[in-house]
Amino acid sequence: MTIDTSSYRRKMRSKQARVNLVPLIDVIFTILIFLMVTSSFQVAADSSAGKPQVSQSSGSSEYYLFPVTGLKTVTVNGVDMSKDIRNSAIAIHTQVIDEGEIIIKPKEGSIIITTPAGMSPDKAVNIPST
């Protein structure tokens, strides 16, 4: 009795390897759900909207440089202070950073600043020192 190896070879060559992705996707989603359920998230103790705290700042400067590409206008409490712009940057007082509001609109090339009570627009911004 002879063994027909040629038909066996043809049969093996004609079969394509098939990968079933459904179990793989099920395993990945199971791992993802496990990681989401077992993760623990903590809320920051002080939510200061991203403003640096006094202890986080380095240096003793009274003004900090705010560079904005294509900066054209700076408005402080409705007063145009664009004359203080140098090289697309402006220096803003630390008290404005801590207690005021700064809105940067990079697409328009403008910064809108609201100072704390009692601060003049001339003191809020300054010409950057080079």
UniProtKB/TrEMBL annotation:
Coiled-coil boundaries: none
GO CC term, one of those recorded: plasma membrane
Annotated localization: Cell membrane
Residues annotated as transmembrane: 21-41
Keywords for the protein's UniProt record, in alphabetical order: Cell membrane, Membrane, Transmembrane, Transmembrane helix
Record-linked InterPro entries: ExbD (IPR003400)
Topology term for the membrane: Single-pass membrane protein
GO MF annotations, alphabetized: transmembrane transporter activity
Protein name: Biopolymer transport protein ExbD/TolR
Organism of derivation: Methanobacterium formicicum (strain DSM 3637 / PP1)
Lineage: Archaea, Methanobacteriati, Methanobacteriota, Methanomada group, Methanobacteria
